[in-house]
Amino acid sequence: MNITNLTSPVIDFIFPKTSVISGIKLHEENSNQYLSDDELKSIPLICNEDKADLHEKVVSDHAFSLFAFREGDDLSKLIYMLKYGGMKRLGEYLGKLLSAELQKHIQSEELICFDYLIPVPLFKTKVRERGYNQSDCLCKGMNEILKIKFIPDLITRVRHTSTQTMLSKEERMKNVEDAFELKKKYITHIRGKRIILVDDVITTGSTLNEAVKILKMHECAEVLVCTLAMAR
Length: 232
Known about the structure:
Rossmann fold; 5-stranded parallel β-sheet; two-stranded antiparallel ribbon; 9 helices; 41% helix
């Protein structure tokens, strides 16, 4: 039997959509196929204190993050599945959520329109291991809302860096120092341009700040750092 010939209700009966957080079956009227609407509503947004902390961590002209998380909570499970579970479509869905709120922020702050949307790159060995860059997936979903030119390879990661998880702030900064380069073919493209730089999570800001440094070295006008989540 060719499963592609089955109608959607039959497929849903045999392979019911379940939450990647709790494993519960999702109702037909649920807004998405990844987590229940109640679970989505329960994920905390960043608060004013988080926003102040965010602006202290990053050296960009503007900064935006949507959710706040702690290790082991529901959002951290989503992020884990995005990064290591092969769920590229989950990243695109989360990117749409992120961009809808970012768009409101851009309008409320009366920011000038941005020219390029770019991800923080992974080193090539990590891309081979995972099969994708999760920040690419976020950007693809975001661009369905923002309609900004997406350039996935504007900056590249030129050396492998060890995981940042167990490192101190100072060690994280040293770990990512000179880890990025701007591709030569884009050098003249970014002068005077406004760029949205996207990553999944910000912890200390070391990785994002190193990427911002490269963009500013090549005379881009403004950088807005945008992350799906911020670690508390």
